[in-house]
Every structure is written in C-alpha cells, then in structure tokens.
Amino acid sequence: METLRIELEPLGVRVMNVHTGAIDTIVMTKQAGTFKLPEDSMYAPVEGKIRERADGGETVPRTTPDDYAEVS
Q: What CA–CA distance (Å, rounded) separates 36 from 32?
C-alpha cells in the first residue's frame, strides 16, 4: 500500500489500507498445491514460505465469515 500511495500521490489519489484481520474462507486454500515460482525467480530462496502462505498455512487465527459479519 505504501508503494501504491507513493506512486499515486502525484496524481492526487490518496490511498488507504484497512486491515481488519484474517477471514476463514477458501480464497487462499483453494489454490493449495498449485503454487510454483518460475525457476529463475529472485524469490526462489523463500518459495517454501510463499507456498505455505498461498496454501493458507499462515499462523494468524482466522475468524469465520459469519462472526466477521456480525461484528463488522
């Protein structure tokens, strides 16, 4: 968001990011097992971590969609 803010500021666009927490949906886990970086990627040293995150393996507790809707 910071990069986007810097790039758009000269155009008079203001950028704001609101992070409300992790929601337990299939958005991330739906891609499980399909993530693969190109062989020459500069991110190859951390591909395992990226794959873990893409597969929904982050350590952040997730809120159910119903609970999120209730408090939002």
A: 11
pTM exceeding 0.70: no
Domain boundaries, the chain: 20-71
Cβ contact 44:36 at 8 Å: no
**CA-to-CA distance for 72 and 64, rounded, in angstroms?**
12
- Assess contact for 42 and 50: CB atoms under 8 A: no
- Cβ pair 37, 50 in contact under 8 A: yes
The span from the CA of 71 to the CA of 50, in Å, is 30
Reported as a single tens digit per residue, the pLDDT across 19-40 is 777 787 776 665 556 777 888 9
Query: How many C-beta atoms lie closer than 10 Å to residue 27's C-beta?
Result: 9
